[in-house]
Design goal:
14 strands, 524 residues, binds iron/sulfur cluster, alpha/beta, binds cobalamin, six-stranded parallel sheet, single chain, 21 helices, 41% helix
Amino acid sequence: MKILLYNPDNGVTRNFMPHLWMFLLQALTPAGHEVVLIDGNARAMDEEELVSFAREQGIGLVGIGAMTRMIARAYRFADALRAAGIPVVMGGPHVTECPDEALGRDGGPRHADAIALGEADETWPLIVEDAARGQLKEVYEPGRDAKGNDIKPSLQPYPTIPWETLDLDQFNLVPGFLRSMLSRAGGGWGQFHVVPIETGRGCPYGCEFCTVTGFFGDSIRFRTNESVIEEILRLKERARRERGQVAVFFIDDNLAINVKRVKSLLRDIIAAGAQVPWVAQISANLLRDEELCDLIAASGGKWVFIGMESIDPANMADVNKNFSKPGEYKAVLERLAARNIYAITSFIFGMDNDEVGVADRTVREIESWPPGLPVFGQLTPFPATPLYDRLEKAGRLARPKHWLDFAPFVMAHAPLKMTIEEARQETRRAWEASYSPERNAEAVRSIAHAPFQYRAGLLIARFFFRGIYFPQMSRAAWLKLIAANRGPVLGLVREALSKGWRASRKKGATPAPERPAADLAAGD
Ligand code: B12
Ligand code: SF4
């Protein structure tokens, strides 16, 4: 049987990275079946195009995964495929949290022939075999232990994802119109992939708005260090072979949740020569540890995603996240910046203590920190979270099924001290102020002492991150962005050219040999 795994896009931004679930399920598919992957973020298709594709390819089963934000879109694709007679199985966080909706058991239309609840590592092979026999069940769920809890996959052993041979063309981050020029320029920048790798699952913190503790559990399961390192080494080898660039996103919710374990992993990465540039989510409280920060830097860590949420401790307490202290954010970022590690700092507006002016206050505070990539979202009651239950009980949900009429940056409930419209405007203000050409130039200037590649990396990353809020998917949008930021862009280009010229003079006018991508990946 030929199987299509499909992830819908969110209609606003393009994801910078493939979704791990597709590659994982592909690797777990029993022998004798072929799996094709399409990520709508990388390869945009409408319903009709996807149905035609599935027909042409003779697809016998489609698996669709989606977060809450994309679920309405996912249902539309599922409806179109089912109308064409192709069976659809859906899985992922939203379907797990609202199983009746996908099956039409809540009075609404049915969208899926079958659903997979929770982690599907062990149920996926059964789904495939049942579908191949034409005997799909409606619901697949993990087994239960004696206490009635889901039996979670141990991650030891962990399936082999054959990154070294997979077709990753749709996920090349270098804009199409720049690829051939950059390939010719050497240095391996004709392609750049960010690849998701998990080293563990689960989170004990239980923040009120988050689905992770409910979905993956509050105890953590880790892969072995060897299995993670073996995966990275294969990726590194691919980058070397293809003369391209690769970076890893460790998608664990908190890579340092067990400090002893992460230190041992990072030490082993260094010992194995498996350094690649990497990014990971780590909470601020765990970044007090100087030795950990040293190991992050030495193992290739370049960016840390920190869920800062709010600069107001009262808000942090409200959402059960007061283990993360706004008072120490600056010191944490300085500790990282001293090692040329920068942060993606994530904020949530629309918490109950936020009022008009929260954007200006937050942006002012951020501007007093080392530069990074701030991102701003809004408090969203995802189904099956403690936040959803609290707001529902208090009768505060303006759109209880907000995902069925998803509107970007429009809250589903009114915070106590602002309206929904005010929260939307605050969010816009924060994005505008944080990614204006002036702010971009200041950010690059503020690390004038840092080596060239960090300043260039910061500016390029700021261009990409701006796109999370301001759509910039066309070549014209990119050219406009570059023109608006011509000051720092030209400064960096001049610096790069003069460096190249000096280097070639030193070597007696012989062009410098191209530095293999693997060396670049190994750090600076
Ligand atoms: C990496 C990540 C991202 C990446 C993008 C995703 C990517 N390309 O990988 C980035 C950083 C861009 C991102 C952004 C966002 N994210 Co995010 N993200 C994650 C994270 C940390 C890891 C995802 C992952 O790969 N997990 C590991 C895999 C193995 O687990 P899985 O995807 O759940 O898949 C398993 C099962 O669900 C199941 N399964 C999944 N799909 C399917 C499909 C089928 C057919 C079947 C059978 C089974 C199945 O099988 C898999 C194996 O067991 C999760 C948290 C988490 N730990 O999962 C949050 C998470 C998915 N994100 C979340 C959110 C809210 C967002 C944002 C909306 C945040 C924001 N405010 O902007 C944005 C939206 C992005 C967008 N496209 O619009 C929520 C989603 C909650 C929900 N109910 O929807 C999560 C769960 C985190 C949370 N705090 O609750 N995210
Ligand atoms: S927000 Fe982060 S720390 Fe809090 S429960 Fe979710 S994954 Fe854990």
